[in-house]
Amino acid sequence: MLLMLVSLLCWVPAPKACLQCDHKIRLLHEDFILSAPSIVDQIEVKRIRDSAYETYKETSRERKGVIDPSTLYRARTEYQSEFDRFLKIKHTGSIAIDQTIQIMEKGRKILEKHLDAFIHDGLCPNKCGILNRRVMDCFSCRYKIYICPSPSGQQDCGEYPVHAEEGGQAVLNCFLPWHRLLLGRPEYHYSWAPGVPGTEKVNESDFKALVVTGDSSVVLNQLHVDEQGTYRCSLQDQNGAIYYQATFLLTVTPLPHQTRRSPITLPTLPHGDNYSPLHPTEDLLVPIIAVVTALSLAASVGLTVFLGIMLNQLRAAKKLRRRKNEGKKTLKTPCDE
């Protein structure tokens, strides 16, 4: 009967309740009106509708007068289930009128329940920053932009310390779930101001643009100590309007330096010690080099002669085997053949 009530509202020039904005409910209600047994019944339903409509209108007005598609879908689905159950029961006389009033009141409670949940948790989920989203007006049944201001009155959503080691990586992520509700395609603008975070005040002119991306997070790899500083993420639309801003204080811890061992140097000999066996003098080096050279030449000649003798012996052995094989062939008799 709530569907019937909402459809009848189309007959008068008055504001409309949220459930009426759903096309499926309107069609279902029109079919119900056509199934009414008499004109008298339609007039009585209209009277009940007029009274129930005021409560519906007041219910919507007390709760911002807006609804999102998801909440409208849940309210419509639950009411359809109640309405289908109502149609399965045959009603006559005064019992039908009483049941009609009850199903309309049931619809008001369903609408009130879903609107309460939407207004409390879903309409403005931003705890900081500014949210502009697309919602349906419960009176005009048209979509409009609803602006949820920041509870703090600022777009700045605080500072977050980030620690990393030199050579490692750091992830800067400024995503919040309500960012999905923003109209258009806002982008994340990342910038940074070098320096040790928190040691001195950072001015706006100190920030350098880093990247503009549709992704909410960036990854900094192979970090150096000189890359630490104050990083800023701001969510902006195409016109530069800022909806959300967060600051990351990145500190990069340098790796401990390895201690290097100094090379070992041998002590120098006292002046005049010309006959030390560990440090031969220049006069001794000349004969030593000559002896080593002579021995190397002798070894080379000896190796050459030895290899030559071995090669000649191998050749002689091959000739001898060849002659023996030829002699065996000539000694064969005709009988053997």
TrEMBL record:
The chain crosses the membrane at residues 284-314. Residues 1-18 form the signal peptide. It comes from the Eukaryota. Keywords: Membrane, Signal, Transmembrane, Transmembrane helix. GO terms for biological process: fusion of sperm to egg plasma membrane involved in single fertilization; sperm-egg recognition. Belongs to the Izumo family. This is Izumo sperm-egg fusion protein 1 isoform X1. It comes from Parambassis ranga (Indian glassy fish). The gene is izumo1.
